[in-house]
Amino acid sequence: MLVPLVQPGYRLACAMLHDSQAAQDVVQDASLTAWRKFGRLEDREHARSWFLGIVANECRNARRKKWVVGVTLGLPSRLSVRSAEERIVEGEDVRRALARLRHKDRLVVALFFYLDMPLEEVAAVVGDSVGATRARLYRSIQRLRPDLGLEEALQ
Amino acid sequence: MNLRSQIHAAIEEVAPPAPALQRDVLEFVFSESKQRTNRAVSRPSPWSWGMRRAGSLVAIGLTMLLLATLLVGGRLWRDWNAQQQSLAVHAKVAQLRDRPLHLPSVAAGDVCPESQYNLDQGVYPAGYGVGPIYAKGSGIRYVTNSRTYFDTSYRPDPDVSGLVLIRGQDLVTNQSMVFGIAPYGGNQNPVTPSGKEVGSDTLIGRTVHLHSEVLMDMAQYSVPGYGWEMIQGFPKGSSGCIGFQADGFRTDGSPFSEVIVISFLIAP
To answer: How far apart are the C-alpha atoms of B217 and A128, rounded to whole Å?
Structure first.
């Protein structure tokens, strides 16, 4: 059950922490938690949102324990050759903007834009209603890119 | 580049592929779960800690209860034991007292049937009687307004065991003898005046309580050469022909009742 969820969890952790090593640690801890609590999962069809919720919670704990992560890390461990300098600057700006978001806002953005999850499943991971999640997503977009309209941002 | 692409690109830069992560996660989960299982086996749960704490309190309480029980129980046992011993003594005395007197009757003017006087090993005076109890006077006599007292000692044979009860009366007038502790003190083998207290008298300035009988205990016969020393008296008007009965048991458990008759010289 866990195996197909590891990579989505890792990607979410990277999006939340911007640190691959910390993300792997978080996924391991989240996997152990999930393995221990798997018996409590009533609807196995929602295992992914359930597991990603655990990962998100572990990410928040990790940032509380290591608050310097968002400050000290951020430089990519591997860069593309194409337009290197420009992409470094651009990527760094985006990550800093994401890092300034509140945990739940950043989680909604990461799930929706990076993991390409539908809004209903994002709401399930976050634990809010779809409407509240949609409103949270819109607010987060405005903070990330005030210059963008919602229609454009959601493309 | 739209926002989605920007976010993708920015995060992909810090999210290198981790192909071994699935295997690492599985190994981590299984190893951790195994260790936790072992820890769960070896380390008591919080519930177990609570039980241990409660168990310790119960153990302390039980220990204190045990100590208190031993303390109180020891005292109760000692008291009960002393009481039982006292009851056993009383039972033994009652058994001796229940034995009937076999003293002869002597008519006034008749010769007093005095017991023979024996010599210990044929040399030393043992006293009156055929054994296992012998009576011997020290020669000390006290005369008061109500009675005449003779200092007397009783000696037992070695096969006498336990308590010996002495009772006596005038064989002519049937007046009862009285017994008391010798007033000069220093009794080597103490006696216990028993039975009914019939009064007291003052001898050489000391008050002597008088009883109808006297008990002697082989357990307190620590100086054999002196015998059990006491005073015994008979009232005014006595004939001086006095019969004593010594009741007791031998070491083999057989009972004895010995009658000793002594003719005392009564002061006019």
So the answer is: 102
Q: CB under 8 Å to B25, separation ≥6 — which residues?
A: A2, A6, A27, A28, A31
- Residues in Cβ contact with A132 at an 8 Å cutoff, skipping those fewer than 6 apart: A123
Q: Which residue is associated with the tokens 């820890």? A: B39
Q: Please list every residue in chain A whose beta carbon sits closer than 8 Å to the beta carbon of residue B21.
A: 6-7, 10, 24, 27
The greatest distance separating any two alpha carbons of chain A, rounded to the nearest whole angstrom, comes to 49
Using an 8 Å CB-CB cutoff, list residues of chain A that contact chain B.
2-3, 6-7, 10-11, 14-15, 18-20, 23-24, 27-28, 31-32, 35-36, 73-74, 76-79, 87, 90-95, 98, 109-110, 113-114, 116, 141, 144-145, 148, 152-153, 155
Integer Cα distance of B16 and A10 in angstroms? 10
CB contact at 8 A, B179 and B161: no
pTM reported for the whole predicted model: 0.46
Q: How many CB atoms lie within 10 A of CB B123?
A: 7
Q: What is the DSSP secondary structure assignment for residue B222, as one 8-state letter?
A: -
Residue numbers in A near B11 (CB within 8 A): 11, 14-15, 18, 95, 98, 110, 114
Under 8 Å CB pairs connecting chains A and B tally to 103
Query: Tens digit of pLDDT per residue, chain B (268 long)?
Result: 678 888 888 888 888 888 888 888 888 888 877 776 665 555 555 566 677 788 888 999 999 999 999 998 888 888 887 777 777 788 888 889 889 999 998 988 888 998 888 776 555 667 888 888 888 887 788 888 888 888 888 888 888 988 999 999 999 999 999 999 888 766 677 888 888 888 889 888 888 899 999 999 888 887 777 788 888 998 888 888 999 999 999 999 899 999 999 888 765 5
Quick one: CA dihedral A116, A121, A123, A127, positive or negative?
A: negative
Sort out which chain A residues have CB atoms less than 8 A from B33's CB and list them: 32, 35-36
